[in-house]
Amino acid sequence: xxxxxxxxxxxxxxxxxxxxxxxxxxxxxxxxxxxxxxxxxxxxxxxxxxxxxxxxxxxxxxxxxxxxxxxxxxxxxxxxxxxxxxxxxxxxxxxxxxxxxxxxxxxxxxxxxxxxxxxxxxxxxxxxxxxxxxxxxxxxxxxxxxxxxxxxxxxxxxxxxxxxxxxxxxxxxxxxxxxxxxxxxxxxxxxxxxxxxxxxxxxxxxxxxxxxxxxxxxxxxxxxxxxxxxxxxxxxxxxxxxxxxxxxxxxxxxxxxxxxxxxxxxxxxxxxxxxxxxxxxxxxxxxxxxxxxxxxxxxxxxxxxxxxxxxxxxxxxxxxxxxxxxxxxxxxxxxxxxxxxxxxxxxxxxxxxxxxxxxxxxxxxxxxxxxxxxxxxxxxxxxxxxxxxxxxxxxxxxxx
Length: 400
Ligand SMILES: C[S@@+](CC[C@H](N)C(=O)[O-])C[C@H]1O[C@@H](n2cnc3c(N)ncnc32)[C@H](O)[C@@H]1O
Prior knowledge:
This protein has 19 helices and 11 strands. β2 and β3 (185-188) form a beta hairpin. It is of the alpha/beta class. The chain has a 7-stranded mixed β-sheet, with helices on both faces. Strands 2-3-1-4 form a 4-stranded antiparallel β-sheet, covered by helices on one side. The mean pLDDT is 97. It folds into 3 domains: 5-121, Orthogonal Bundle (N-utilizing Substance Protein B Homolog, Chain A), CATH 1.10.940; 152-207, Alpha-Beta Plaits, CATH 3.30.70; 212-399, Rossmann fold, CATH 3.40.50.150. The structure holds S-adenosylmethionine. The site of S-adenosylmethionine has 18 residues, from α13, β6 and α17.
C-alpha cells in the first residue's frame, strides 16, 4: 500500500481532535469524510479505518512509540509510523518519518504481547475490572472486542422480507449474507455506506447488530398489546418491537432525552411504524401514570457499553471506573421504578450491551430478592467471542 499525504494529514488532524479536544471518534470520522469530495471509496475506507485503528490501539502504540499521553503533532506522527510499520507499509521519505526505528517498533510489539493491558490496548482499570468479573473468559472477550465490527442490517418486516431485501440490495451492488442466529438480519460482505442506498431511504432496513436484534423477540410481544419501551433512545429496539407487533397495539417509547426520541420519530416515519408514541420522562409523574398498565416492558438500560467496544473503540479511553459505579446505581434504580409499569401476568425484559455480571445477572438477582412479585423465566448472555457479534445480556421476568 502507498501512503497518500493528504489522506494521512486528514487522519493526523482527526486524531488531534479526538485525543486533544476530546471529540467523539464517530463524529470526527463523519466530519473528516466530508473534507474532500474528490476522495473515492478506497480513500474514504483508508481514512475511516485508520482513524478507528489508531484509536483502538492507542495505548499499545503509545507504549511502542514512547509517546506516553502527550499528543503533540510530532507524537501523533510517531504513533502513525508505528501503525504503518506494523501494517508492513513502506514509509515514504517524508520528514515526519525520518529516523523511524522500524526494527525497534517490531521488537517492542513482540515484547508487549505477553502483557494483556498493552497487547489488547486497554486502560489498567478496565483490565482489572474485566479480569475480576470474568476471570479467564476476559482474555477471549477483549480480544474479540478489539476486532472491527461488521455492518449488520435488520430487515423491516413491516415493508419487506429478508429475501426480497437481499435481492434489492444486490441490485444496488450491496452484497449481503444471512445470519443464522437472527432471522431478520443480513451482514454486509464488504463495508459500504448503506445509508445512501434507495433501500434505506425507503425504510426497508435499519442498521442494528445481530445481538441487539435478539432483544425485542425476547420480550415475547404479540400484535395488539400495550408495550412500554422505557429507555428507547433513538429507537433501535422500539422499531423492531413495532415490526414484531405488525403495527398493531400500542408502544409508548420513553427516554430522558427528548432529542433521541425526536430521532426515533423520524426513523418510525421512514419505516412505516405507526403504533409508537414518544414521551420524554420529566420526573416520576410520567412513570406513576403508567403503573400496572403494560403487558410488556422493555428496560434497555444505560450501561458501560463494554459489549460494544468493537463499534466504539474510543469508549476505552472515555469510560472510567467511577462512571461504571454510577451507572450500576442508575440501573438498579431504573429496574426498581420501571418494573412497576408491568401489569399482573405481564412480562419485563432487562437488557444491557455490557458483558459484566455486575451490570447484568447480579442486577436482576438483587431486584428479584426485593420484588417477590416477579420471577425469572429465562436469561441469555451473548458472548462477543462465541457469537462474533456484540456482547449483550437479557433477562425475561414475569409479574405474578
Ligand atoms: C442503551 S441506550 C438505549 C438504546 C435504545 N433502546 C436502542 O435500541 O437504540 C439507554 C438509553 O437510556 C436512556 N436513559 C438514561 N437514563 C434513563 C432514565 N433514568 N430513564 C429512562 N431512560 C434513561 C439514555 O438516554 C439512552 O437513550
